[in-house]
TrEMBL record:
Record bears the keyword ATP-binding: yes
Motif DEAH box: chain residues: 444-447
Hydrolase as UniProt keyword: yes
Role this protein plays: 3'-5' exonuclease.
Official protein name in the record: 3'-5' exonuclease DinG
InterPro entries linked to this entry: ATP-dep_Helicase_C (IPR006555), DEAD/DEAH_box_helicase_dom (IPR011545), DinG (IPR006310), DnaQ (IPR006054), Helic_SF1/SF2_ATP-bd_DinG/Rad3 (IPR014013), P-loop_NTPase (IPR027417), Ribonucl_H (IPR013520), RNaseH-like_sf (IPR012337)
Amino acid sequence: MKHEIKTKKYAVVDLEATSASADAQIIQVGIVIVQNGHILETYETDVNPHEPLTPHIKQLTGITDAQLAMAPDFGQVARDIYDLIEDAVFVAHNVKFDANLLAEALFFEGFELRTPRVDTVELSQVFFPTLDRYNLSYITEELEIELTDAHTAIADAMATAHLFLKIQQKIMCLPQVTLTKIMQYADHFIYESSLVITELLPYAQQNISKEYNQVLDLILKKQLVYGEAYHLAPDFEHNVALLDLDARPQQADFARLVTQHLDDQKINFIQGQAGIGKTYGYLLPILAKYPKRKLVISTPTKLLQDQIMETEGRRLGEVFHINCHSLKGFDNYIKLDNFWTTLEREDDNRLVNRYKMLVLVWLTETKTGDLAEIKQKQGFMPYFDELRHDGKISELSLFRDDDFWQQSYERSKVSQVIVTNHSYLLTRVVDDKAFVEDAILVIDEAQKMPSQLENFSRRQVRLASLISEVEVLYRQSPDLLTRRLLESISYHMEQLADSAGKPGKEAVVESCVSQMRQDLGELGPTVLPRLAEVLAPQFDDFWVTQEVGDDKRIRVLHAASLDYLYFKDLLPDSTKLFCISATLEISKRVNLAQLLGFSTEQVTMGHMPQDRQANQKVWLLKDVPQIQDLSLEAYADLIAHQIKRLERLRQPMLVLFNANQSLLAVSRLLSDFGINHLAQHGHGTAANIKKRFERGEAQIILGSGAFWEGVDFVNHDQMLVLITRLPFENPQDRFVQKINRYLRLTGRKPFEDYHLPQTILKLKQAIGRSSRRPLQSSAIIILDNRVLNRKYGKSFRDMLESVCEVEDISSQKLVQAIRKHLK
């Protein structure tokens, strides 16, 4: 401890029991006495429950019936336990179970336990606000607390005691101003956990140190800004050594390819296979050659953006003092004015008040104000939506100088390296081309940019919220003509909503949009700005979608342009552009540069040779049914039984899906089978479940979206990848229809020249997820037999055989073949 403190006596308790139910019998007791910041005493005993243990409890705890047969009855140890804890505050991790069970057992022996209760779960949620989870095994690993023999009472009690000491340390390291503010909401803890804060408040920091700013009662962490950056060496391998990284020949070759094109005046497209370390491969040569020139890196997802900042960005700052800054859209950041408003407001919701406390702590730690750092939002997302920034900051705001979005925007002007995502990049360059003027712009995973351009060129609005907005305006308007026009718009929006999912809806949409445009033209665009944005003249394709959730239907009006948008047209001429991709030639007649709007004369193409992977093998299942002919239920059942069969290998397994509906259906079946797994959307975000998977919380992970192309699995020596379906795009998707139109107009065949090669590329990237380092071995299983029985299947097979060995096999022989490959 930093201070010599005087505190109450705390009894940190953990029980093992015959079950988790209310009528469970205690089988083991562990107690650790903590006072004045030190562990003073421990106590442990087995207890004979006089009933056999279930196999689950035996496996979980390692306790046997023979061991407990030699143990005392609870009545024989009740006096010792009561004497030890009756004058202490009862502390446990999930205190309700332990406290209720022990109090009841003591009561039946004539001892009444009335001690206050403190829960280290709710304290951890407030004082360690950025953790993904709060179960004991996870939190002890995160805080580097030893936990051996988990699920034995004394081991869990000792780990909880050390966690409790860490919480005490954290409280005393916080400014008193923050703790005083937290105490305004501490009555909303479920238990008497506020006792811990109250008695440590005098020991907390009274003076605000230089690392903080104070605005009203908010204490904010100052951002770390490096001074003059160090110069990188001209030699790539020397810089790699300074970063304490292993030399990688393919990474060095890629870096040399980047270096060759740094001084030319063309747009540079560079192809490099997955797993060679491309990020350092372009970062280090560019920073060495141009130490004063701004470098903007754009990734396809926020997940990859955060990964670069957490790894390469952090190391560049630590070793070379290079200021790297992550830039996202304003709604990713907290707006301090909004948060202060909620603090001034009384809320009865216990969860909301806990969030207020944890955000107060988080503000003393965060350097970005990015709400994604807080992982507990799922409990009450509307509160965090209330905190999100709207991109505006009042001149009268007391938080103007400390506004995270404003600071992020300003820091982007002075940071040497800016990491952003494709979506925000497009928004920014349209509004402000100076953002990348004279900069070096690297588009990482550039093959994703065409679809991002399509998303950027769309608009959407919920019809229900628009209808409500029109109703409010109608009631407020005294003008008869305005009311008639609003009535017309409201009627046609109702018609649009009613058309969702019905035959002939296209004609209804066309008619309603035409009339609403006419009505809005008479009203003026400022009356209904959100509707005006969707009905803007540049849009000529409209449709309505419907989602059903939480017993309500959400109908959305979408707008897009039929014209193809070129990335080239958005950039200033002074931008030096590198497009990095796993492939450049989509087919013989279509390449990535063309799709982004660049002519052959404007670009250079650099290619990295691809090595065949000796430790990777693909199996094509030849005895599965045609999956495209199966119902959702039959399809999910087929996949779930394949997973059940492969589970016998006891290897980490990634299962890739095209559709979330089938992913969640398989997840439900696996739960019915009792198979532990992590499912995207069902158990958390892609980033969250990936971290949990890598920690070993489950050996099976079900993923879609980013898992196909953007999430790497480096930590596993061996891995299985089950590909449930070839990743063709949905032919009804608006972008697919637009690219088809564009290709036909330019004399090319959409399927042969674009969709087939794009799908092959996506499959190639997917099998590369589990081959990220030389000694890593993996087995890829493809459940979709179109590779074997369709004419275009040869194209898939040729690609697969260029990467690794491929074998056709029956389901019955699969497990043995994989076991032989991985041994």
